[in-house]
Every structure is written in C-alpha cells, then in structure tokens.
C-alpha cells in the first residue's frame, strides 16, 4: 500500500506556544486553520488544501538552505505577492531573488520563523 500523503511535521522549539501562534497568525498554518475551502475547522488539525508536495533529499553539501539545518519547510501558497505584503506589514523580513523563479517551477520567497528556521514560500505555476 502506498503512503497517502504527509501526515504531520513535528519539530522542537524553544517556545512551542509562541511559535504555534506565529505560524497560525502569519501563515495560517497549524491546528484549527483551514486552507481547503471544502474542509471544516478542527481544533487539532490544519486542514490543508490538496496539491503537489515535493519530498526530496538534498546532498549534504547543498547550499540551498542553511548548512546547520537538516531540513527546510516549503509552504505552497496561492498569492505570493499578497502574502509577502502581509508579512512585510507585520515586520517580517522577506527574501526574494529573481534567479529563484522559473516559469516551469513557479515563484519563491523565503522568511525565517522567530527561532531562525528558514521557510520557503512557493507559488506553483498556473499550469503544472
């Protein structure tokens, strides 16, 4: 039987409650959040909208994300420009680079959560 999809992402944090609020308030991610218009809120689950998920290991010496981190979170978004504006209005630094964007793969931006974890924001191309 094949796996059906990602069931969860669990990671350590210095202040889990504050980090939970930050992800919920700025990205709409976490328990009780609903991004799938067909789903009902659930106090324990994030009801994410279906779509593509990239699951791939990188070489140990890759410079795609910080060398001292074993992973980077990539979140799929539908309106990168709108999210960037919202994040910047909240005082969150957003990094964009034209070389990250490609018509075949989409557009990208990066932010860091309050504990320094890099988060890649990805707006897939309109046509896969």
Automatic annotation (TrEMBL):
It comes from the Bacteria. PROSITE patterns: VOC (PS51819). The keyword Lyase applies. GO terms for molecular function: lyase activity. Residues 5-124 form the VOC domain. Keywords: Lyase. This is Putative enzyme related to lactoylglutathione lyase. The keyword Chaperone does not apply. SUPFAM superfamilies: Glyoxalase/Bleomycin resistance protein/Dihydroxybiphenyl dioxygenase. Pfam families: Glyoxalase.
């Amino acid at each position: 039987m094949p796996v059906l999809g990602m069931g969860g992402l669990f990671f350590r944090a210095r202040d889990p409650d504050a980090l939970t609020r930050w992800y919920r308030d700025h990205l709409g991610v976490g328990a009780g959040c609903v991004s799938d218009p067909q789903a009902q809120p659930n106090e324990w689950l994030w009801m994410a909208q279906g779509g593509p998920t990239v699951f791939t290991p990188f070489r140990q010496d890759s410079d795609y994300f910080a060398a001292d981190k074993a992973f980077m979170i990539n979140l799929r978004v539908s309106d990168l420009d709108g999210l960037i504006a919202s994040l910047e209005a909240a005082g969150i630094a957003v990094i964009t680079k034209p070389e990250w964007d490609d018509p075949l793969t989409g557009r990208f931006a990066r932010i860091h959560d309050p504990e320094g974890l890099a988060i890649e924001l990805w707006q897939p191309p309109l046509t896969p």
